[in-house]
Design a protein that fits this description.
This protein has a single domain, classed as Jelly Rolls (Sandwich), CATH 2.60.120. Helix content is about 25%, strand content about 20%. The chain has a four-stranded antiparallel β-sheet with strand order 1-7-2-5. Strands 4-3-6 form a three-stranded antiparallel β-sheet, with no helix packed on it. The longest helix has 18 residues. It starts with a helix and ends in a 16-residue tail after the last helix.
């Protein structure tokens, strides 16, 4: 999975968006199952992520994924910005405090439901999204279903994340730039590659 995250294709997509070599922050599999109650946990409510100003997350379906499987769901950035402003205004008029999670009813009240995109499709399908700018949620898995997706996170700023085997990339300056920060979380620092 790390090799895919650092492939020429993946790095070029992220580098083009972030305008520089990103910090590869997380490489993971997300396994989601139905909750025993109908209440929503934080990740199941619309929100934007707090890490940095910009980032890119890839969500790739490992198995065929439909609405029952709780697909990754998002709203494009321009519409997310409008919705957040509208909900803040609505909450202010209602005398409610602003919190960073948004209910389906709030999204619907400001006309945001029509912009929702669900990442369903066959295994291998997916999306790359700036979750710092796009409202999103996931894991609303219905009874009898599950979701497994590959999750890659690239940040423009230094954030705590996975620790990578940086020695593999010592002689590859671009990939080393993408992973060497992780040595900080392992308690060691890494010198630049030999020229």
């Amino acid at each position: 999975m790390v090799d895919f995250a650092l492939s020429d294709w993946a790095l070029s997509v992220v580098t083009d968006y972030l305008h520089g070599v990103p910090y590869l922050n997380r490489v993971d599999l997300l396994y989601s199952v139905p909750r025993p109650t109908d209440d929503r946990i934080a990740s199941q409510l619309f929100h934007v992520d707090p890490e940095g100003v910009t980032q890119v997350k890839f969500f790739v379906n490992v198995f065929d994924t439909d609405d029952d499987d709780g697909p990754f769901t998002f709203i494009p950035a321009d519409e997310s910005r409008r919705i957040i402003r509208a909900i803040r205004s609505l909450r202010t008029r209602q005398g409610k405090p602003h919190v960073g999670r948004y209910t389906d009813d709030e999204i619907d009240a400001v006309g945001g439901s029509r912009s929702i995109i669900r990442v369903t499709g066959p295994r291998g399908s997916g999306v790359a999204v700036d979750t710092s700018r796009c409202l999103h949620l996931g894991s609303r898995v219905r009874s009898g279903s599950f979701r497994l997706c590959m999750y890659l996170q690239y940040c423009a700023s230094l954030e705590r994340g996975n620790v990578f085997d940086i020695e593999r990339f010592r002689h590859d300056p671009i990939r080393l730039l993408a992973v060497k920060h992780s040595s900080k979380w392992a308690g060691r620092d890494v010198a630049a590659p030999h020229q």
